[in-house]
Amino acid sequence: MERLELKEVQRLEGHTDRVWSLAWNPATGHNGVPLLFASCSGDKTIRIWEQNLSSGVWSTKAVLDEPHTRTVRSCAWSPSGKLLATASFDASTAIWENVGGDYECVSTLEGHEHEVKSVSWNASGNLLATCSRDKSVWIWEVLPGNEFECVSVLQGHTQDVKMVKWHPTMDILFSCSYDNTIKVWADEGDSDDWQCIQTIGEPNNGHTSTVWALSFNVSGDKMVTCSDDLTLKIWESENIGMQSGDGFRHWRHLCTLTGYHDRTIFSVHWSREGIFASGAADDAIRLFVDDNESQVDGPLYKLLLKKEKAHDMDINSVQWSPGEKPLLASASDDGTIKVWEVVSQR
């Protein structure tokens, strides 16, 4: 087996407070379009970073310092890469459009009573989800002219909702919370009648503390979740044939990865190549991969590598890039972002 390592490509400075989240623009990194991502911070700003195609060097393309008045907690690009949504502790979500290289705030979504923690677009880009410390999840319909209409307010979590994430191929929404559960939401008809169709909690092999993040594999039949209980859990959907009557998949526990982390795991992201990365409060990044030689009843994934001291403080977000040769970006309480590549150790 060749040994792999995580090699630092560049350390990006500019934010003046902790960096909470980052998001790669899905329309970049192929067809000669340089890679680009957004980051957001406790400094109330969003920064847009772009890689120079010839030198490979990253630099700040734009700094968006309006309209948020408090920490910007989460950011997400629409599937087309044309719109950027940013969620803030000021209880609003802003929508930005790239107009000839300038980013303009074209809409502000208000309604949550407390800090907005996360924002996510569905696969077709016609729905947006937000979640909040007010325990609710909101679903917004994207209308022509950058108008957004709230079509459903989902109540079900009993605590702060940390993250929302749409399934990669279906209009099914997942949310994870300080109440230790993951909830699965679907529209039961054509009437915007969104319902919780499954709650994944402690009684069914779920987490025993705050669930911070979740991510899907490329085909969408597996999900990884990370938690304050120091574990990563892998879930698989039982019904792959989606043409059946009710069509909703049921998610079941596949395995738990325990013993790898001794501090809270804040972020997890599954690459298209099948490697998932975790970022945690021990300042380390870990990569996990399918274990083809796993024992019967053993975990089906193994630690590929651990990068100690990847940052000086907590790692809040790890995200794989689009494009041919994926890079990994990490964001930290130390105020920096780092871009990494996976290379073979010589």
From TrEMBL:
Tell whether Repeat is among the UniProt keywords.
yes
Show me the WD repeat boundaries: 12-50, 65-97, 109-142, 154-185, 204-236, 308-346
- Per the record, the domain of life is Eukaryota
What GO cellular-component annotations does this UniProt entry give? cytosolic [4Fe-4S] assembly targeting complex
A single GO BP term for this record reads:
iron-sulfur cluster assembly
Q: Sorted alphabetically, which keywords does the UniProt record give?
A: Repeat, WD repeat
InterPro entries documented for this protein: CIAO1/Cia1 (IPR028608), WD40/YVTN_repeat-like_dom_sf (IPR015943), WD40_PAC1 (IPR020472), WD40_repeat_CS (IPR019775), WD40_repeat_dom_sf (IPR036322), WD40_rpt (IPR001680)
Output the HAMAP family linked to this UniProt entry: ciao1 (MF_03037)
Q: Would you identify the family this protein belongs to, as annotated?
A: Belongs to the WD repeat CIA1 family.
The record's function comment reads: Essential component of the cytosolic iron-sulfur (Fe/S) protein assembly machinery. Required for the maturation of extramitochondrial Fe/S proteins.
What name does UniProt use for this protein? Answer: Probable cytosolic iron-sulfur protein assembly protein CIAO1 homolog
